[in-house]
Amino acid sequence: MAVSADFLQFLFSGITVGAIYGLVGLGFAIIYNASHVINFAQGEFVMIGGMTTVSLIGLGLPLLVAVAGAILATVGIGLLFEKLAIEPARDASIVALIIITIGASILFRGAAQVIWGRNFHSLPSFSGDDPILIGGAAILPQSLWVIGGAGAIVAGLQWFFNHTLAGKAMIATSHNPLAARLVGINTRFVLMLGFGLSAMLGAAAGILIAPISLTYAGVGVMLGLKGFCAAVLGGLGKPMGAVAGGLIVGISEVMTAGYVSSAYKDAVAFIIILAVLFFLPSGLFGDRGTERV
Amino acid sequence: MTALGRPGTRGLVALAAIMAILPALLPNDFLLGVATLVGINAIVCVGLNLLIGYAGQISLGHAGFFALGAYASTILVGEFGWPPLAALVAGAVGVALLAVMIARPIMKLKGHYLAMGTLGMGVVISIVLDQEVELTGGPDGMPVDAFTLFGWEPAGEMAWYWIVSGLLLVSVWLALNLINSPIGRALRAVHGSEVAAAVAGVDVARYKVRVFVVSTVFASIAGSVFAHYSGFITPSEASFLHSIELVTMVVLGGLASIFGAVVGAAILTTLPQLLAFLHDFEMLVFGAILIGTMIFMRKGLVPTLAGLARRWRR
Amino acid sequence: MTILRVEGLTKTFAGVSVIDALSFTIASGAIHSIIGPNGAGKTTLLNLISGLYMPNAGRIFLGDTDITGLMPHALAGHGIARTFQNLQIFFNMTAVENVMVGRHLRADRGFLAALLGARRIMVRDAECREMAEEIMRFVGIGGYIGSDTGSMPYGALKRLEIARALAAEPRMMLLDEPAAGLNPVETGAIDDLIQAIAETGTTVVLVEHDMRLVMGVSDHILVLEAGRKLAEGGAREIRHDPKVVEAYLGHAGRNR
């Protein structure tokens, strides 16, 4: 049975945008694991990565340098955020911490609007714009960069978590922070590492996708929220679940736009999150708890 | 304890006094309008404060319920010829049913799932209002018919100011009653120790649902009033940013403080109106306020000041 | 008459059986103690009975009713009240309000009536407050009636928790280490309080480490070890049971 060219097109499109949601969701999962905080500013890391790259290229720097610079800048901001806003509120209730991250998200967005205005910007594609034909579907080379880049990052993270001491320390902390501290793991460092990694993931996502869909000061809102939906779908705190969740959200979105109605494309992610909450609160891969209170 | 001795009564009287004197102090209609907007936001915030401060849950989509009330009034009156009061009530009932449907399954879960659910709900509402152009006028919005009650129609800013002030006083009175009742005490107990409250017989999930429903009804009614007052509504009333603005007002004013909610609404509604040049920096300032309050003044403005005042008196 | 019957109760955490096929009964109106070395599962057992944990297997009966797996607030409705090993006082409320929450199920809880500030709620609340003050006096902390919880000493707070549990007029009270952290004089006073409570007809189930208190006050003792019943009986039998002595003191204790 020949698969329609349309379907293949949608599939690739869905995997591309899904890869981005997966990276953002991964960022949510990592910070949640390190601190049980839902970092609503995750989407802004995406925005800062893309916009900073735009500015650096505008200054005349070559692409690779601009990308590296932007990632460093975003990680720096992420670490600063952790030091200045999260750590002082370490003993606060989860409600207070959620409010702080929401505040940071708005702060970053507001600052971005002041710095960069409300205009849309674009980045040059990494290797040109000539579409590649696969099975009748026209795939942008940048799409391959996105999928490949995301795949490489995820693989790198898997290696980091399973084969380095720092990575294993993060996993240990997510299971039982007290026990982790008792065996000598510096949980403050783990938290910082978590924010640093998430900022890097966000920035990478923003840079990869910018050549395809333009970037602007407000791009982080929807991307962040949808990445969050991906993380919840995968089971909050399950990194690989977030990646899978991202792909599912991305593909569902594009399929809905293609076959059902393009008007409600954006609603898909949020309908998914409502469905998860009603039918499968622990997500696809999350733990089912037995304690009530 | 007589009615006058109950905590909060003095505050209620003071609020009524302030609202009565204000029109005499405000020199023009524009400022009177700002005061009316403060009142509308305050009604939403009093309800939201019950949810965040007393039930310990966050709603990241309250603007959605506000907008549903607004659009219910607009559409039922404009398209179907309903009397405005009936439309307002219908909007509130519809929102209440929606709230029960979302909250019942979610509140049984441990953790901050309501934040996620309301976030999803708010965005979906916002998108629906934007897309269903036939029904809602789409992103450009739609005009709202005047509010009439058996032939009488509020004429001018002053009339609306008194209507909103009255509604705000009623909202505060209802909230105070709830807090001073055994249910209010049970909610505060849940804050102190959820385990001990449950063991004492408090059905935590059920009360959280009820408080959530009350808070959405407050939002819906405020939305309906806003629609008729403003004469024109757009889907941006349901935006995520608007939901965050509402949360900011409650957080700044003071969690678990009904009058704090009013103060927070007052400050954050008037500031952008009076300082037009702030407009570009509005988001930056809101974000900074949220972070700053949570780090330095976690209880919020009114409870912190009240605490200081108590210490001074000693 | 049996008020509590536990049959084959099992609770596992991550594969480890903290309570293992435990069965026992508790007679109504008695003071019943549960003792055992650390890690025996005493607090877990209380958590299972008060609904904070779901058992993996087994049943719990209160009177004739199967209460296995019911939520804590439902169990309160069946007449179970408890105190906690690590104080769970509502520090954001005054002492009297803490006790009033204990009476929650007997308060007027109409939601709409509460919103409208109905008179009948205020009247019932005033009665509730009077009862709470009376209970505080019964328990021996009448002097703290006007106090804020933040300024009360540890011993008074322990009694406040007991007052809160009593306010529910329970059929059965679970006390989790009520004498923990108290000096011998205060412990003696707790001893008297427990007897006074039992005299009102309420069944008392006590988890304690203080052997003098346990031996002095209990009608019946259940000894747990590693989640299983090691022995049960009256104070004299338990004191001389070699298995119990070994569990607490090790092999060397056997020759004492």
Helix content of chain B: over 70%
Task: Determine Rg of chain A (CA atoms, Å).
Answer: 19 Å
- Helix-and-strand structural type of chain A: mainly alpha
Largest sheet of chain B: 2 strands, antiparallel
Q: How many alpha or pi helices of chain B?
A: 14
**What share of the residues of chain B does DSSP label as strand, in percent?**
under 5%
Gyration radius of chain B, rounded: 19 Å
Biggest interchain interface, per-side counts: A-B, 45 and 47 residues
How many β strands of chain B by DSSP? 2
Shape of chain B: globular
Give the tally of β-strands of chain A.
2
Q: What is the total domain count of chain B?
A: 1
Give me the number of helical elements of chain A.
11
Query: Which strand order spans the largest sheet of chain B, edge to edge or round the barrel?
Result: 1-2
Tell me about this structure.
The complex is a heterotrimer of chains A (293), B (314) and C (256). Chain A has 293 residues and is an all-alpha fold. Chain A has a single domain, classed as ABC transporter involved in vitamin B12 uptake, BtuC (Orthogonal Bundle). In chain A, 71% of the residues lie in helices and 2% in strands. Chain A has helices at 5-35, 42-58, 63-86, 94-116, 141-163, 165-175, 177-182, 187-209, 219-234, 239-260, 267-279; strands spanning 132-134, 137-139. Chain B has 314 residues and is mainly α. Chain B has one domain (2-238). Chain B has helices at 9-25, 29-54, 62-78, 84-107, 113-131, 133-136, 156-180, 182-192, 194-199, 204-230, 240-253, 258-274, 282-296, 301-313; strands at residues 142-143, 232-233. Chain B has a two-stranded antiparallel sheet. The longest helix of chain B has 27 residues, at 204-230. The radius of gyration of chain B is 19 Å and the shape is globular. Chain C is 39% helix and 24% strand. Chain C has helices spanning 42-49, 72-78, 95-102, 111-115, 119-139, 154-166, 184-199, 211-217, 235-240, 242-249, and strands at residues 2-13, 16-27, 31-35, 57-62, 65-66, 80-82, 172-176, 203-207, 220-225, 228-233. In chain C, the strands form two sheets. A six-stranded mixed β-sheet of chain C has the order 6-7-8-3-9-10, sandwiched between helices. In chain C, a hairpin with a 2-residue loop joins strand 1 and strand 2 (16-27). In chain C, helix 3 crosses helix 5 (119-139), helix 3 runs parallel beside helix 6 and helix 5 (119-139) crosses helix 6 (154-166). The radius of gyration of chain C is 19 Å and the shape is globular. The chains are: A mainly alpha (293), B mainly alpha (314), C alpha/beta (256). Chains in contact: A-B, A-C, B-C.
